[in-house]
Amino acid sequence: MLFTPLRQALGSGANTQAIALRRGIGSIDYFDRYMVFGIPDDDLPEPTFDTALQQLADGTPGTEADELLLRLRDDTQRITRRIQYKRTAGTPLPAAALLEAAAQQHGHLTAAPQGAFGLLTADFAMSTLAEDLLTDLAEPERPAILKTMAENPDGAVLAARTLQRITSRAGSDSPDHTQAAATPDWIGEARSAISHEISQHLAPAASRPVDQLTVNRSGSVGGSIP
Fold first, then answer.
1. Which residues pair with 214 in a beta bridge?
2. What is the helix (H) or strand (E) element at residue 221, kind and residue range?
3. Alpha-helical runs (H) found in the chain
4. Average per-residue pLDDT in the chain?
5. Residue 114, beta-bridge partner list
6. Dihedrals φ, ψ of 37, to 5°?
7. Who's near 49: CB < 8 A, 6+ residues apart?
């Protein structure tokens, strides 16, 4: 809106990803910094962001990592975008640690919907990031991390959804859509692991009358399940 002539010249050809990667004023995630000539209070400075990722990679908790995880819950869309910027730039990311963190935060997201008609929800942003991060891991590593994600009820929802999205994408990428492609071994192993964890979460509800069951924020049915 501030640069109408430029917008008219670029038309719809502006590369928003490239703008974000160079932290340009045209990026939704960096615009505020140019307006206040610094880092806004609701933003996470780049050095802090990088330190937090390194702490997650090293498995060494710190204030930076804590701050990143807090913002992953409360400012989900922006944090997931910034993680995606680094992924696009080829920066090594602690994919497994981020997936575990996403699973822990998944049922507690507070960020308001964004975009046209509020279609970009925090849940959608987190699910998209989880799918991309899982594909960054070698296939033999994926079942174990999905099992870890599913060890809490909200994480089980995210793990199952992530596996379903990747499985569907793999099927659509098959050269012959009329014939089911062979299911990779890791998918079968992951399905079994997630199913086992879900059955553990639902076990306490099995002895409860139907009218005492509740539905939590992530859509899971349970009795004593938080």
1. 222
2. strand 221-222
3. 4-10, 16-21, 31-36, 46-58, 63-74, 76-88, 95-105, 122-136, 142-149, 153-172, 185-202
4. 86
5. 120
6. 55, 45
7. 64, 68, 82
Sign of the C-alpha dihedral computed for residues 128, 131, 137 and 138 taken in this order: negative
Is the predicted pLDDT of residue 219 greater than 70, yes or no? no
pTM metric for this prediction:
0.77
From CA 80, how far away is CA 134, in angstroms rounded? 14
**What are the φ and ψ backbone dihedral angles of 98, each rounded to 5 degrees?**
-70, -35
Task: Give the list of residues 6+ apart from residue 132 with CB closer than 8 angstroms, or none.
Answer: 84, 87
Where b means 16+ CB within 10 Å and e means fewer, 112-138 reads eebeeeeebbbbbbbbebbbbbbeebe
- Tens-digit pLDDT profile for residues 50-62: 999 999 999 998 9
Q: Are 181 and 133 in contact (CB under 8 A)?
A: no
CA 4 centroid distance within chain? 34
Distance between CA atoms of residues 60 and 64, nearest Å: 11
Q: Any idea which residue has 């930076």 for tokens?
A: 64
The CB density around residue 163, as the number of other CB atoms within 10 Å, is 24
Is the CB of residue 143 less than 8 Å from the CB of residue 193? yes
